[in-house]
Amino acid sequence: MRLKKLSATLFQNLWFNSCSPPTFATMIQKGIFTLSLFVFALTHVSAQKCDLVLRGKILHQENDQPIEAAYVWILETRTGGTTDQNGNFVVRELCPGTYTVTVQYLGHKEIRQTINLSGSTTNQTFKMQEESVALSGVEVHGHREAVQTTTAVSSLYGEALLQSRGENLGESLKRVAGVTTFSTGNTISKPVIHGLHSNRIMILNNGIRLEGQQWGAEHAPEIDPFLADEITVIKGAETVRFGPEAMGGVILVNPPTLPTSKKHLTEINLLGASNSRMGNLAASHTGGSEKIQGLGYRVQGSVKKAGNVRTPGYFQANTGMAEYNFSGSVGYSSKKLGIEGYYSFFNTEIGILRDSHTGNLSDLIEIIENGEPFLKPNFTYQINNPKQVVSHHLAKVKTHYHLNPELKLNFQYGFQLNQRQEFDRRRGDLNARPSLDLELFTNTIDLFLDHSKNSNWSGSFGINLIQQANSNVPGTGVTPLIPNYDMSNGGIYLMEKYLKGPLELEGGIRYDYRTVSAARFVGNDLQEADLKYQNFSAFMGGLYQLSPHFAFTTNLGTAWRPPNVNELFSQGLHHGAAAVEIGDPNLNSEKSIKWVNGLEYEGKRGTAELTAYVNQINEYIYLNPTGGTFVSLRGTFNVYEYLQANALFYGVDLSGTYQFSDRLNGYLKGSVIRAKNTETQTYFPFIPSDRMDWGLAYSFGKEANRITLSNLVVARQTREPEFDLSPAPPAYTLINLGYNRKIKLSDNQLNVGLQINNLLNKEYREYMNRFRYFTADMGRNILLKLNYQF
Fold it and tell me: What is its main location (predicted)?
């Protein structure tokens, strides 16, 4: 207990009690010292008698996909277990010595390997090969590759993903420590990882980088969370793997793997919500061919409709939305060859809060001073101007071929078409015309070679190519906010990983070259620009199993990001955001170095994970409120400008679970982030405030019947920018209640969920909501969720 108290006190003094922001070098020194204390303490408290641990991961040799429910058995001790959804296994309480480990999975060759245990923990990765004989009814493998990285990774799947159904992607990911949202009202939200969002966070839809107009603060990701059976967040700088736009992290939205044998699964989700009177229906069907071994398919679709959102005191005018989506895939797998085709379509219409578009300067001042909208209509599903209409098409073809048991060649092509229209309140016939009408075409090519030698060495060498063409559709009657442009980017990278005993090491390097050509007419003047950017990025990381219960991870990575077209050339009213944005064509590329360290604990009754990070970004680009306003015939709007400064981001994420008894368990997660302009010693706008979420779950006899009570506590953001339209809102606390029941219906399963968010109907405003100046956030919301699988 004294050791824990000493470590906590030193950590607090080192990271949070300094009066001025530390330099990056100071942060590294303090981080090393703090982590050394943890390592020293934890490695000296573990016993040395028969408490050794064998941990590992079981993967498919064909595609590095994790194998769930593989059987791991130690012959000498007659102990073992099965792997989880991510292919991980653990065998505890082993004595020093030599053991024979057997790994079995139906339809694959058995692995038998001799392992010598001497340290406290040994890590092993086993890759299983498909049996050469055909086995009827055996699912061999799918097409999803495992996430293998030493940086901080969190995933939503199973029960946690089921509870998030009906929410958009941003809201779903708030269940992960260190992830918040940057929202525009209650229907538009973007995920924020460690204070970064938009073009600094890469989202992959089934392995294809999602390319829409993601630069906009009110441009939500064009993706349907219902298509996924797992959503993974990588919190480190991942530019080597994925390219410059991954400098803040990566979100992987993965659909279920396709079956390769006769198998059928249908799933229906039906949801309803009291607030906004939302209705949501989603269905999917997955099947495998009986005649052609290795052939599988999946189709999925969803529809969603909601009306005006209600705060505790009033309805918000024009805040309804409608959405319909579809996705489908078909694939074939054999021992050496795999090929998959995939298509998804996303379409949404979103109303923008009517009072965010004010008529004149006095109206703007009055609504901010009033603290709530003047227009308080009754409920309606009708959506009027201002609004957004967005559609997104994504198609991909992917194939892999095994040159030999140690080499696999992969090729992937993706095509995307994003169409965005933003409508403003205009006079006469102009009201039916969009004020912003954009079409974005994107082509991507990924070609890479994976290699693996035994279970120690693995890696990839590859190239990424991306080509984009953005067009402003004529007829808006407004000077385009951003110009037409063509963008090309080529990247080449190399990554290697080494695993031996309790140690895992990895590193990589990448080079990117980008060209941008832009043009537009402002009045009768043609404005053109041809820009070029290039840079290297690299990373190195490691994982070490300190003891049977503790593991330490560290990852140090450099990253860069060229300025986006909107940051360079925005010049006018951004209708969907209800703001005037001014770009700067002289902006330079951002360059950063991020260090992420994690300490993980896994015991019989509980788990805990502490992640500490520091991210120094030189020439950080941000949208800053000037404090000024712009008055036009369409109304009065706040003015923002893109600026550049050196920045320092640092903070911690904490999450954990504890099993108090067979029926009662609890969880806790929280995050603290600091972000400062190191040139002027001022704060950046729209940085998440400190928050903590904790809860208790009680099971009535069985896990299938459970009630959960949770509490979200959010502090006031006291680190505000110099100019803002109004002070940051006060701190708030929300209480949420949930009930879940699993009902067996013959061989099928019905999951029933009841959630009450903001149980006490508390009025609050979230600092990260751009409409906090005009209105409060959503009031009490009761959701009924039905999930049927057959």
Answer: membrane
Closest to 325 measured CA to CA, from 381, 281, 388, 383:
281
Q: Determine which helix (DSSP H) or strand (DSSP E) holds 323, and give its type and residue range.
A: strand 321-333
Looking at this protein, which amino acid is placed at residue 165?
Answer: R
In residues, how long is the chain? Answer: 790
Segment holding 569, helix H or strand E: helix 565-569
Using alpha carbons only, give the angle 581, 584, 587 rounded to the nearest 5 degrees. Answer: 130
Q: Dump pLDDT digits (tens) for 494-516.
A: 999 988 778 889 999 999 999 99
Q: Does the structure show a pLDDT above 70 at 34?
A: no
- Token reading at 29: 């020194």
**Burial (0-12, 13-18, 19+ Cβ within 10 Å), 488:** middle
Q: Which residues contact 745 (CB under 8 A, 6 or more apart)?
A: none
Q: Is 158 helix (H, G, I), strand (E, B) or coil?
A: helix
**Three-state secondary-structure class, residue 692:** strand
Please, what sign has the CA dihedral across residues 758, 166, 318, 434? positive
pLDDT at 12: 44
Q: Which pairing describes strands 635-659 and 579-582: parallel, antiparallel, or unpaired?
A: parallel
pLDDT-derived band of residue 154, with 50, 70 and 90 as boundaries?
Answer: confident
CA pair distance 133, 159, nearest whole angstrom: 36
Bigger pLDDT: 105 vs 2? 105
CA distance linking residue 737 with residue 710, whole number of Å: 6
CB atoms within 10 A of CB 292: 11
**Cα 141–144–146 angle (5° rounding)?**
105
| 256-270 average pLDDT score | 90
pTM of the model as a whole: 0.84
Q: Which tens digit of pLDDT belongs to each residue from 39-85?
A: 444 444 444 467 777 878 888 776 667 788 888 988 888 788 888 76
CA–CA separation, 752 and 387 (whole Å): 34
SS3 content of the chain, % helix, strand, coil (to 5): 10, 55, 35
The tokens describing 609, both together, are: 């994970």
